[in-house]
Design brief:
Elements: H1 4-10, H2 12-15, H3 17-31, H4 34-47, H5 54-78, H6 85-109
Length: 118
């Protein structure tokens, strides 16, 4: 099974520092540290500016914004709950669903990026 994490590692040559930050944020999400993940995604938005190719910058931006929105949804879900494995798993599910929904919405706004990002 190819996970988002696995795909990001494979794309590291394209996105460089942004990939490292994505992976770091995902690790924080896995632990239920959504506020920390959001901070890291914000750093990834800054790191995108170092990408020379506009298409890659736009792809990275879309992915980062969608991941950050997912982490924000997970944070909202879990902020008033006990951080146990069951709630973290549910929050991660919410994050992933929000990410997918956001990507679908962004694809409608930017069809040139749909299925064209490494």
């Amino acid at each position: 099974m190819v996970t988002t994490f696995t795909r990001a590692v494979a794309c590291a040559e394209h996105y460089g520092e942004v990939t490292r930050l994505w992976i770091k944020a995902w690790h924080e999400e896995e632990k239920g540290n959504y506020s920390q993940a959001i901070k890291i995604y914000k750093n990834a938005l800054k790191a995108e500016k170092s990408l020379n190719e506009k298409h890659l910058r736009d792809c990275a931006n879309t992915g980062t914004l969608a991941r950050m929105k997912g982490a924000q949804s997970a944070y909202e879900f879990i902020k008033d709950k006990t951080k146990n494995s069951q709630n973290i798993a549910k929050a991660n599910e919410i994050s992933e669903k929000t990410f997918r929904k956001t990507i679908d919405e962004m694809d409608k706004l930017r069809p040139d990026l749909q299925n064209s990002c490494p």
